[in-house]
Predict the structure.
Amino acid sequence: MWKPPQRIKHPPLDHPWPRAEQAQQSLLFNPIKLGPLQLEQKTWIPAMVPWRATDEGFVSANVLDWYRRFAEGQPGAIVIEATGIRDVASGPLLRIGHQRYIPGLKKLVDTVHQASQGKTKVLIQLIDFLSIRRRPEPEKFFQRFLAIDPPLRHRYAELTGQNDCDDETIRDTLPTLETEVLNQILDSRQQESLRQGFRERVYDKQAHIEQLPQVLPKLFAQAAERAKQAGFDGIELHYAHAYTMASFLSATNCRTDGYGGSRENRVRLPLEVYHKVRQQVGQHYPVGCRFLSDEIFNDGSDLNDAKYFALQFAQAGMDFLSLSRGGKFDDAKQPKVGQAAYPYTGPSGYECMPSFQSDELGPFGRNLEPTAEIRQAIRQAGHSTAVVVAGGIHSYQQAEDILQNDKADVIGIARQAIADPDWFRKVKAGCGAEVRRCEYSNYCEKLDQNHQEVTCNLWDKKDKDDAVLSKDQRRRLIAPAWRRET
């Protein structure tokens, strides 16, 4: 992952912990309503992919264990990982693209409700994503994947002086050319396919891409109905990071069919998806979205775009808005041959998941001020839509100060919840000194990048004898139970 050049090492924040009486009187540990959704406290575990589903996208025993362990900490809400709305192969990632997934998802909902003693609401994040391929070996790219189209043939003839060559000759010659010449023959997308791996864009001219505005609203609505049938307490539409819906919102979206270009056009499909979902699940079922306060990379959407989108979502009637930041393919590092690009390796990825090696700001609350500005814009427009903030929040003082200063309505705690799923119970009980504090090493993020089961290095090597272990048998898969100190 990219890191700021300053490389300043930041330890976890050493803030004081509250007494039990103080915690129970705080804003953090008091209820809030997000439209029809009542939370017992203003805490929220955002969606994180743990790589525990079956290869067919079903809920596994390890998925149940993972979310049961979070639920034992009794946060206000847990958002289940990004779950695919299409019935297509996507590896060990949860899916909801068919009725056959409902029984497993219902078991997941029941598990969270039971483990939290009914204190935690459980939502599911619905996602669509476009195709991305691994970085190819150059020989395979030139011989098998590169299309020898007329524009390429013309550039080849112009730069090499070789006219009327057959495809085989061109494929054999291209790898022998100097990089400078090759870059003039391959267009920018062909160069990217060679050096990063092919990646679809929402503005590509293939028929299945052009038809996305006609296809996606129905797919999301059908998935939302399945989520409701499975018993989820609400839905979060995934409009963030590097995926389909975020790509429609992005300033890079140059579609010319009314779904790209201006802000008004770029937000059109996300609104149409929301309205179709709302029509399907009804007015009294909680629906919100997660989107970006800033894409971070050059030519991407910025805070002003995010304010505009937030107002459109609030006016449309969404029950909550959850803000993230960055995490884009556009500035991702070049992957190794045989691996796919990962959207959290560039500067935008760092802003999404900053580590303890940072600049003067450190990894703590980098998304806070942009989120506060977005919330202020919503309030000034007369909307009361709840705003969820996340990003480097791991101390009670941070969380309570955010709420006291009206910078957000709900506190998202992600990596800190992996480090210690009992953070919520411990802090509320006046046992904050027993919290296992996240060190922001991004050990968990590296596992995610490698498509391995996500764990935390603060606990995954401890007491392994009686624990369920990872596929490599080296790590326990869930945090040890809290044994309260006396």
